[in-house]
């Protein structure tokens, strides 16, 4: 054996080095595993992340009102001067000093003032509102009475005469005669009929007892008047209408009937 037989071979010298490297890698891997095992994974959010509501702001503290004992003493500086409020003036009541007296030649007639029933005649009413009013007086069997009245400080007195015949009717007409025609106005009042026209030959005035024929023909749209034992007049409406002639004839006949019953 030579002196070189006691030295280790190159292959035998590699094993210690490899062992040291292996042990170092094992220690490093163990340390890394230990560090990772200590970390906790963050929990997953089930839905969208909502921001936490802001904390409520503290309400300001109110200091207690000073009591009479602890209230500060008033200073010599004068405070603001307030003008006194104007007193409320109540609305003036409507005057109610009016007096109404109604009389009629037929007793027991109903009296209405502004469509309000006041009573029957003879009637005296006080305490009515002053001013303009509408008076209506009516009784069965007679034509009603209506008029405007003024109630003031002095008593308003009204006398209604139902038995008197009231007639004041008029209608514009055209008189048709043999040659040509003339225009004018046919008028009726309690005294009778009269025809007012510029043609003097056609004008007339008749008492009701002298009227022999007084009739309206609605279809022919004319009104015929005949004097007893005398002349005949045929009247037409200027616009060719029958209604004005019909109304005039009706009012005259009502008045004639009342005059005949007297």
CATH architecture tag of the domain at 169-261 = Roll
- Return the string of H and E elements: HEEEEEEEEEEEEEEH
Query: What class do helices, strands and sheet pairing give?
Result: alpha+beta
Low-confidence stretches: 1-5
Give the termini distance in whole angstroms: 194 Å
Taking all Cα atoms into account, the compactness measure Rg is 61 Å
- The total count of strands amounts to 14
**CATH fold-level name of the domain at 169-261:** PH-domain like
Instruction: Supply the CATH class of the domain at 169-261.
Output: Mainly Beta
Q: Report strand %.
A: 25-35%
Largest beta sheet: what is the strand line-up? 11-10-9-8-14-13-12
Largest sheet: 7 strands, antiparallel
What general form does the structure show? elongated
